[in-house]
């Protein structure tokens, strides 16, 4: 709003200046308008571009549970509150790693496919670069995303610091199915074990159905080779499923007749229930949305028009509808969607709103093409154990106060 | 045939195909190289609940204490109480309470996962460095801390998979998916 007023004022000045010039011409003492950067020759080319220095504060939010002891264990969350559109730029795609980022030489890296196959095979990275490629846009979400919105008191941190273990990219690679068929899948095979070449050798069991369906060996992300923190030189990509299963730095796939029950599918990434038991192998990421603007820690500058905008997604397929409430869920209105034609990708939603200077409670609720509805927070919390922290897809609430401050609240 | 010459031949075939017509029935590329069982054995480190693939060697908790003190204690604390890293012991019976403590003893369903994970990922700053005997021994020590085996029970490829973890029946598989509500 402030900018718009400034624009109007400047426009008025330009118009009156133009009228004056038409009458008498420019007074010779008046210098031509132009900021300092319009009066010097600009910088030369850069081989690899960087954002404006004025935008340098935009960056990932670190979650390092072990601190300096293990600075590459934990997550670096995407600053979703500062991003627009659907695609996450590679430098701020979220990172979730267990033992840091390995420095892999692609000439030495190899991928093994073995176990219940007719022909155990080894692939060099060069060889993998020769398979015919596909390009798909998919979100990735860590199943521990939004666990920070389960603390006893609502954290007053930017949206991305709580909900930023979500990103969306255009991935290029080829179907994993091609390699599995080349090796010859034996009838007894029901699962694959996927393992990374990081020092955690992170490993997960994946049902063979998924491996033969839409699983991708990803080599490129948003047009460039995968970055080291995203699995360079190659990663598994399982659309719509827990990010943890899209094993980075993929070095080995073993076909098995049963799940291997690795550490990260038993002690972690299992969903603890109130009765002491836990759900295991909950692979699909639930339907979810979060308002990114305005959001926690932001400040509304002025009354009047505000665009409410955010991201929505579902591991089950396409987002069919996103609804926005400004009164804590009493009434809902449908938001406009961008990207809703793509399954398992982020959708951008927008809703125009007039802020009258009063309190407001902003929420968004996504519904997917399978009819799944994003749950309210209290229902989600009641369903799981007190320390549950995976698959939190519950509705996020931002309270707008009369002074324009936006706070994170539980509602 | 080397990978490079396979790729070269593949490229020539692709060019020939493009020159004639785009064919949907082109044979899929096959660039995988055969690999021997001996080579695979050096890479295959995953151990399922049945214990297939467990290596030779053995260890007891008494031996494992030394391994633990040297490689694990700094992060997992004395007797596996945790801090700064995860607690390894305790919490048995706590899972249905308001303050569940999820450790190897109270939560992990399979003892094989302990061997598998220690061998592939621990110690954090030097994984793949412990001998198989040391991995058996330190696994035995963690099981002993939880009161699951005795201090002198020998853990090896035969005995480890037979250890029944307290929370063995505590998981409900969601694959194939079941309705949520």
Number of helices of chain B: 6
Distance between the termini of chain B: 56 Å
CATH architecture identity of the largest domain in chain B: Orthogonal Bundle
Shape category of chain A? globular
Instruction: Kindly report the name of the CATH homologous superfamily of the largest domain in chain A.
Output: Oxidoreductase, molybdopterin-binding domain
What is the residue-averaged pLDDT of chain B? 89
CATH topology of the largest domain in chain B: Cytochrome Bc1 Complex, Chain D, domain 2
Low-confidence stretches of chain B: 1-22
The CATH homologous superfamily of the largest domain in chain B is called Cytochrome c-like domain
Order of helices and strands of chain A: HEEEEEHEHEHEEHEEEEEEEEEEEEEHEE
CATH class of the largest domain in chain B: Mainly Alpha
Major beta sheet summary of chain A: 5 strands, mixed
Rg over C-alpha atoms of chain A, rounded to the nearest angstrom: 25 Å
Give the termini distance of chain A in whole angstroms: 30 Å
Give the CA-based shape of chain B: globular
Gyration radius of chain B, rounded: 23 Å
Structure in words:
The complex is a heterodimer of chains A (411) and B (181). Chain A is of the alpha+beta class and 411 residues long. Chain A has two domains: 95-278, Sulfite Oxidase, Chain A, domain 2, CATH 3.90.420; 288-409, Immunoglobulin-like. In chain A, 13% of the residues lie in helices and 31% in strands. The radius of gyration of chain A is 25 Å and the shape is globular. With 181 residues, chain B is mainly alpha-helical. Chain B folds into two domains: 3-34, no CATH class; 58-162, Cytochrome Bc1 Complex, Chain D, domain 2 (Orthogonal Bundle). Chain B is globular, with a radius of gyration of 23 Å. Chain B starts with a helix and ends in an 8-residue tail after the last strand. Strand 5 (121-124) of chain A pairs antiparallel with strand 1 of chain B.
